[in-house]
Design a protein that fits this description.
Blueprint (H helix, E strand, L loop, with lengths): L1 H7 L8 H9 L2 E3 L8 E2 L2 E8 L2 E8 L8 E3 L12 E3 L8 E2 L2 E10 L5 E7 L7 E4 L4 E5 L7 H8 L2
Bound molecules: zinc ion (ZN).
The site of zinc ion has 8 residues, from loops.
Amino acid sequence: MQQNIVKYEYLDKTLTIYQLKAFAMKTNFICPKCRGYLNVDNKVIFTVKKKGWSGGIVKLSPELGDYAITHHPSFKFDDGDHFEFHCPICNYDLTLDGADKLAKVILHEEDGKEYFVVFSKIKGERCTYKISEKQVEESYGDHAGRNMDLLSATFFR
Ligand SMILES: [Zn+2]
């Protein structure tokens, strides 16, 4: 915990030790293009668009495998809808090269290690992958089996 205390000295001193622990344990989600932070207040923020809809902002859970999504009540999302996910900072299209239905962001863990997190852009398709340089380290969701070949072909050629 000593390391956490050191970090604390650079932050707002009104943080309690409890809040500090929560902060220090956090992982960050980062845009692969601009390296801006996509996580705010324990949610991961994206702008999304789909055909015939100019788009909006959604908040996803930072817990891999938690498919809770928050958005404006006027948004109508149906299972099977194919969304485009963009970085809300630089507007970069987060589509994974070679896999149109998947999106990719960087996961920066507290120990400094970085991974890619890949998830489906299709509403209702529950699959999330944590990927290192070498392999799919972890996979989540009922449909995680669907894209393993695609991921191998994309990441580990
Ligand atoms: Zn960006």
